[in-house]
Structure formats: structure tokens, C-alpha cells
Design a protein that fits this description.
The complex is a heterodimer.
Chain A: E1 3-4, E2 11-12, H1 14-23, H2 30-90, H3 92-102, E3 120-124, H4 125-132, H5 141-144, E4 148-151, H6 156-167, H7 172-188, H8 211-223, H9 227-240, H10 244-247, H11 250-258
Antiparallel strand pairs in A: 1-2, 3-4
Helix pairs in contact in A: 3-7, 6-7, 8-9
Chain B: H1 8-20, H2 26-37, H3 41-63, H4 66-82, H5 93-110, H6 118-121, H7 132-135, H8 151-154, H9 158-169, H10 173-183, H11 189-196, H12 200-219
Classes of the chains: A mainly alpha, B mainly alpha.
Chain lengths: 260, 222
């Protein structure tokens, strides 16, 4: 008989319900069951892939976002390495120039500046050397006070100048310059030979010499028959030292008296 | 004929247990579905074993075609499988499951010309049955034995079951739907009303009507 649940919530007919439960017992076919369960397992096995996909996509996005910066950092690093390499070679050039300048005349004549467009006059002596050449070896104390650095545009001027000086036949001073130039060549390599033009002899003053050395050089020029060179050296000697003639050997004093 | 003695409370509990697996497992249904969403295949197997019969029979009683019921049943559960990522336990799993089944049934009927899903929603009862509520009173009328004493509850055989099923096929779709959701799915009146989009009183009326028709079918056996 039909009735309603004691709580009045819904109609209930126990006989119908029981009869229904006994009669309605069908279920899906095993094939359908297997298909559904297989689909569920496939869905589960597919899920890690779908979860991995976003993470891979995130990694790709991360790389895409940071790739330009990484490339820029790599380029900057490479440039830094190159910069650290190249200046090391360039530092050799001024150091050689300064070393050479120690052997030269202390001051470059102002008139010589326009004639040497590739050269620039460095500040005198210690300040320049200390600022530019901290890695250069010891400086001869005798030349510190009077030296002035002539910085060529390219270091090859040193070798060229040295060769020119050697060809002039000036004995001891030229030999000194050659020795220094040889050291410079050994240090800097032969590539310095090719570059800048050699400065003119007028523009490159001779380093100051002691009176005895200067007198010996004049004597050697005189004995070699280079009277003109000896006379030029004598005039320079006289310009540097008031009592130049007094340092000359006796054999040259008569000749020196003829030189004005 | 099999003799079955049932009491009201026991019957109700047994029906609900049958519909939902075990008493008090409604929460477990949601937990199993969430576990399945997290990748636990065994949870889905348990969930499916618990609900596959009722959902299949719900579809079978509406379509009366085992092949069609198989197809619809598979579609519904495939939707469950695919929707696992989106599943949120806002309501009972059973309500959500039969919502899917009902929608699939509607799609099936819409794809077949001449059959309108509105028959599920309309309470278009036979004019002869418009006094169904009066025929199926809320309380047992005087002189009528209680359900446990009803001879029909004592002797029901397979023939009665077949007749019952056949009788349900003749019940209008809205009443049949309410009855199936009530008996097979174990949904409450409010849940059926929410699912059908009608007031609970309407569902109550549909159930009374369905019960009356089925009881008439059983009484014919006597």
C-alpha cells in the first residue's frame, strides 16, 4: 500500500520499492565497464603529461624571457675578456716609449711638435711614468730628473728611430739607443717595426751626457773624420756646458778653437 | 514466488544503501572523486562499482533499449572521467552524476525526432489521474494494512518484477524520472526537485503518481 514516510518528506510504498529492487538488477555490459575503466586509467596516465606540459612550457617561457639577457651577458663577458687581453699588448707600447725616452733628450723642442703629428708630449718625468707605467721596471736614477716621455702613436717608431740613429754613425750614444731598442724589440715583438714614421733627428734630442762622455763622443767623431758631426756635437756640448772646451782632450782643443 | 518481509524503516535504509553504496558514503563519493582527480585510479573503480548499476538502470528505464542505455551510460561516465579536473564537491556526487545522466538523456531524446524532452519536465498527467494525490494519500487510509502487512510485500516474484518494469515504462516521463531518481539514485525530494528544476511538492506529487501506477500493476497479479 502506498504510504508516506513517517517524516512526511516523501511518499513511500515499501511493496513497490521491494518489488522494484528485486526486478531491477540489470547492469552495464562488461565491455562498457572495461571501456570506462580503461578510459579512466588512460586519463590518469595522460594527466602527468598534461601536468608536465605546463612545466615544460614554463621552462621554455623562462628561457625565452631570459635568453636575450643571457646572450647579452655572454657578449659582455667575451668583450671583457677581449678588453683584458688587448690592453695588455698596448701597455707595452708606452712602456717601451718611456724606456726609450729615458735615453733621449730631456725636453722636446716646442718647434718640433708640429713636425711630429703622431707624437704627443707627455708630462715630464715622474708623474707621467708613474701614472702610465706602473708595471715597467726600474728607471735609471741618473735620467729621472731630466727625462721626458715622447709617446709615439705606435710603438714601431722606436725601432725605426733606433735604426736611424744607428745609421748615423754616432758611436756610443747610438749604441746605447740600439741596445735599448733591441730590448724593446725583444719585449714588444717585431710588429713594432712596421708602423709609425721615424721622428726626425732634430726633433729627437739626444739625452744629456756627462761632460767626459760628451768629450769622448766628440773625439771619436773627430778621429773618425766626421768633422761636421764632431762640430755639431761640440756646439751642443757647449750649449749644455759653459766650460765644455775645458773637458775636451788636448788634441782637440786646437780644432775646437776653430769651431764656433 | 519469493516471500520477502520488510519493515518500513529497514526498507528505506536498504534502498538508500543500495542507491549510494553504503549508508553514510555520500561524503566518500566526493572523496573518491577528488582522489581520482588527483590520479588515483582505484578510487574511480570503487566509485564506478558503486554507481554503475543505478545509473545504467536509470538510463535503461528511460530508453527501454539496452544498447542505447549502454551507449548513454558510457557517455555519462566518460564525462565524469573527463570532468575530474573541474570537479568541485559543491553538491553530492550523486546529484552531479545524475545531472550528467539526465542531460545526456535529454540530448539523446532531442536527437530522436518526435520525442521531446519536455515530457520529462512537464507534469502532464493523464486527466484520469489528476486526482492521483487523492488516490495516493499521504497517510494510509483507515482499515488499510501497514506496508509490512501488505500481501504484495510478502509474495513478489519475477513476474511481478517484469510487470513492475513494464508498468513503469507506461508511466509519464516526469513521474518515471522522479521515481527512478528516488529509487535508483536514492536522491531526496529536494535533490530531485533541484535537479528537475521544479518545486519539491511537484516531485512529491509525481512520486505519488508513479507509486500508484506501479502498485496497480502489482495488484493485478493478485
Amino acid at each position: 500500500m502506498s504510504t508516506e514516510r513517517p517524516g512526511g518528506e516523501r511518499p513511500v510504498d515499501e511493496a513497490v520499492d521491494q518489488a522494484w529492487r528485486d526486478a531491477s538488477t540489470e547492469g552495464p555490459s562488461p565491455r562498457i565497464d572495461a571501456a570506462i575503466l580503461a578510459a579512466a586509467r588512460a586519463e590518469i596516465s595522460r594527466k602527468p603529461a598534461t601536468e608536465a606540459a605546463p612545466s615544460a612550457r614554463a621552462r621554455r617561457d623562462w628561457w625565452t624571457r631570459w635568453q636575450p639577457l643571457a646572450a647579452a651577458a655572454a657578449v659582455a663577458g667575451l668583450a671583457f675578456v677581449l678588453v683584458q687581453t688587448i690592453p695588455r699588448d698596448r701597455d707595452v707600447t708606452p712602456s717601451i716609449a718611456v724606456e726609450m725616452s729615458r735615453q733621449r733628450a730631456p725636453v722636446v723642442a716646442p718647434a718640433a711638435e708640429p713636425s711630429a703629428p703622431t707624437a704627443k708630449i707627455a708630462p715630464p718625468a715622474e708623474a707621467t711614468r708613474s701614472a702610465e707605467l706602473p708595471q715597467v721596471g726600474e728607471t735609471p736614477p741618473a735620467t729621472k730628473s731630466s727625462e721626458a716621455a715622447v709617446l709615439p702613436a705606435a710603438g714601431s717608431a722606436v725601432a725605426t728611430e733606433t735604426e736611424a740613429a744607428a745609421s748615423s754613425g754616432a758611436a756610443s750614444n747610438a749604441a746605447d739607443r740600439s741596445a735599448v731598442a733591441a730590448e724593446a724589440d725583444a719585449a714588444a715583438g717585431t710588429r713594432y717595426r712596421a708602423a709609425a714614421p721615424a721622428p726626425s733627428p732634430a726633433a729627437v734630442p739626444a739625452p744629456p751626457l756627462a761632460p767626459a762622455e760628451w768629450a769622448a763622443r766628440i773625439e771619436s767623431l773627430h778621429d773618425a773624420g766626421d768633422l761636421a758631426g764632431a762640430a755639431a756635437e761640440l756646439q751642443a756640448f757647449r750649449a749644455e756646458y759653459q766650460d765644455a772646451d775645458r773637458h775636451l782632450p788636448d788634441a782637440l782643443r786646437e780644432w775646437a778653437a776653430s769651431v764656433k | 514466488m519469493a516471500s520477502i518481509a520488510t519493515g518500513p524503516g529497514r526498507t528505506d535504509t536498504a534502498r538508500r544503501m543500495r542507491a549510494t553504496g553504503t549508508s553514510g558514503t555520500d561524503q566518500a563519493d566526493e572523496a573518491l572523486m577528488l582522489a581520482f582527480a588527483r590520479g588515483d585510479a582505484s578510487s574511480f573503480e570503487r566509485l564506478y562499482a558503486r554507481h554503475k548499476g543505478p545509473t545504467y538502470r536509470y538510463l535503461l528505464r528511460h530508453t527501454s533499449e539496452p544498447a542505447t542505455a549502454d551507449e548513454l551510460h558510457q557517455d555519462v561516465w566518460m564525462k565524469v572521467v573527463r570532468a575530474r579536473d573541474r570537479y568541485a564537491p559543491d553538491a553530492r556526487f550523486t546529484t552531479w552524476l545524475y545531472t550528467l545522466a539526465r542531460h545526456r538523456l535529454v540530448d539523446h531524446w532531442r536527437s530522436r525526432r518526435g520525442v521531446h524532452f519536455t515530457s520529462l519536465e512537464d507534469d502532464d498527467r493523464d486527466p484520469a489521474d489528476r486526482d492521483a494525490d487523492a488516490v495516493v494519500p499521504a497517510d494510509p487510509p483507515d482499515g488499510v494494512a501497514a506496508a509490512g502487512d501488505d500481501p504484495l510485500t510478502l509474495t513478489i516474484d519475477a513476474q511481478a518484477g517484469r510487470r513492475l518494469i513494464a508498468a513503469l515504462a507506461g508511466v509519464p516521463a516526469p513521474q518515471r524520472d522522479a521515481f527512478l531518481l528516488h529509487v535508483e539514485a536514492g536522491l531526496s525530494l529536494d535533490e530531485i526537485a533541484q535537479l528537475a528544476g521544479v518545486p519539491a511538492e511537484t516531485i512529491k506529487s509525481r512520486l505519488r503518481y508513479a507509486y500508484r501506477k506501479l502498485r496497480v500493476a502489482l495488484e493485478d497479479l493478485q
